[in-house]
Design a protein that fits this description.
By secondary structure, the protein is mainly β. The chain has helices at 40-45, 100-106; strands at residues 17-21, 50-52, 56-71, 81-95, 114-116, 122-124, 138-145, 154-165, 181-188, 196-202.
């Protein structure tokens, strides 16, 4: 086989659309079926269980952080063996649409903290929580450009089964900057030890 420098079609450039699963934790069975010829963004948009968070900034990052332990022996100056003793996965992005729905999502708030008040205006209660409160976990699905033949209609689907916000979130009103919510989601594995899945999908077989 002749040497090739690489495949430019495998270089991915472009933003992803981010959806939250409004019913809480996500399972593989909760994900709508793929429809041939239909982008998964459109499929999720038509499913009432998912909400599009709208515009994002600074893209989408999925960060894998393995933790390895070391075994040192007398006869070797460096480590003789590494073993995996931990794992952490984070999903980072910034919500450019500063809605109360996105703020509640970003701070892992309870659904009961958001709703219309007596005047009919949307209102979010900035609750301090109570003893025994547990973090609110929600599912996430992002759909972006995929890798492969430039002639094919490809997309990449990122699905996170259990996601919760773990870092501080700033709400701002500034003259020269947009108000947006930078958020880091900690992904947790389900009972099958799966954080989720990443699928490179051909939208249309033709």
């Amino acid at each position: 086989m002749a040497y090739t420098r690489g495949t430019s079609a495998n270089i991915i450039v472009g933003a992803a659309a981010l959806f939250t699963y409004e019913d809480g934790q996500l399972t593989a069975d909760d994900m709508p079926a793929y429809v041939d010829g239909v982008s998964y963004k459109d499929t999720l948009q038509d499913d009432v269980s998912f909400r599009n968070v709208g515009y994002t900034m600074n893209g989408l990052e999925v960060v894998f952080q393995p933790d390895f332990g070391e075994v040192q022996v007398d006869q070797v100056l460096d480590v003789a063996k590494l073993y995996k003793q931990g794992m952490q996965v984070n999903l980072n992005t910034a919500f450019a649409e500063a809605t109360l729905e996105n703020l509640l999502f970003a701070i892992a708030g309870q659904d009961s903290d958001l709703g219309p008040n007596a005047a009919g205006d949307q209102e979010m209660n900035m609750s301090a929580g109570d003893i025994g409160d547990v973090p609110v976990e929600r599912g996430l699905i992002a759909v972006g450009p995929g890798s492969g033949s430039a002639d094919a209609n490809l997309e990449r689907v990122y699905a996170a089964f259990r996601a919760l916000s773990i870092e501080s979130v700033t709400v701002s009103a500034k003259r020269d900057e947009p108000s947006m919510f930078e958020v880091s989601f900690r992904l947790l594995p389900n009972d099958d030890a799966s954080y989720g899945k990443i699928v490179d999908r051909t939208v249309s077989a033709s």
